[in-house]
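Weekly structure sync, notes
Attendees: PL (lead), two postdocs, one rotation student
Agenda item 3: pending single-chain targets
PL asked that the sequence for the first pending target be pasted directly into the notes so everyone works from the same version. It is reproduced below exactly as submitted, 162 residues in total.
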Amino acid sequence: MKKILLLLVFYFVAGFAIAQKTLMVEKIGSSRKYFYHAGDYLKLRVSHQDTLLKGKLWSISDSVISVAELRPFDVRLSDIGSIYKKFAFPKKFGRIVGVGGVAIFAIIAFNHLINNEQVFTPDMFIITGSMLGASLISWSLSEKRCRTDKGWKLKVLDIQIN
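Predicted structure, written out during the meeting:
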């Protein structure tokens, strides 16, 4: 009986300890939603000062968030012009394909040097150029700009697990 009672007390205490505020960015009229918690890295543009802030989301209150690279900088939710959402897969894919393109260029050039052939050939530039182009396209698609004046909305959610 003591174990069950202790487990119930621990469950309720842990539920109150997990309570936190969450910043939600959602597209109006759609089901796309992105969530940010304290400690997540964030990139946003403040519209009034026209500054770009990057750093860790330090704290979230009802109408103000703090973004910190070295020291916390308070930003009102109404002043945020856009938030940039990062996607990990396109960035990793772009990096891998870019390094692969450079490696293939070096391998083909080394092979041509060993066999006493012309070092730079058109097929070498076509293969590695297309790989580097795919890398740049993938890297540019790894970040999405969510503008608050173009249908995106910021909300602060107070989540408690009881």
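Discussion points:
- Helices lie at 2-17, 88-114, 122-140.
- The mean pLDDT is 88.
Action: rotation student to compare against the earlier draft before next sync.
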